[in-house]
Design goal:
single chain, alpha/beta, Nucleotidyltransferase, domain 5, 5-stranded mixed beta sheet, 36% helix, 25% strand
Length: 139
């Protein structure tokens, strides 16, 4: 009995559709990161050449990247035992997930496609995954 997985992903959430015995189940994994605007500098001291309150942009970006690494790790943990995986979605999240999956050679071999897709409803995602695996004959 095969377990095929279709995965729509962006930087806000991942909608995972699992097809098993022609029955589709869905799981949503949220990315709870808040994008916020970095302050444009810090405050000046009243003394010349005094200390400044400066925001470390690289430190903020490091935390941001670490958060996405955990998000992709959660998604990978959920799809780890799939027989075949289809990844689709807008922007770069699907490519970033693919890079994270490439570290797991056994799972990387089971990716059958990476496709661009616009924002979709949950029902549209289920329909796309079902149609994809029916057309490839592996559902």
């Amino acid at each position: 009995m095969s377990r095929n997985v279709g995965l729509w992903i962006d930087h806000k959430n991942a909608i995972i559709v699992t097809l098993k015995s022609e029955k589709a189940t869905t799981k949503i994994i949220e990315c709870d990161i808040e994008r916020h605007v970095l302050p444009s500098g810090g405050g000046r001291s009243s003394t010349p050449y005094g200390p400044q309150d400066v925001v470390s942009e690289s430190k903020w970006e490091g935390r941001y990247k670490h958060h996405f690494d955990r998000y992709y790790s959660d998604v990978i943990d959920f799809i780890r035992d799939a027989d075949e995986v289809l990844i689709f979605g807008p922007a770069s999240a699907k490519d970033e997930l693919k890079k994270a999956i490439d570290k797991h050679k056994d799972l990387a071999r089971r990716i059958v496609g990476i496709e661009p897709a616009d924002r979709m409803t949950k029902n549209q995602i289920v329909a796309k995954v079902s149609e994809y695996f029916q057309n490839t004959g592996t559902a």
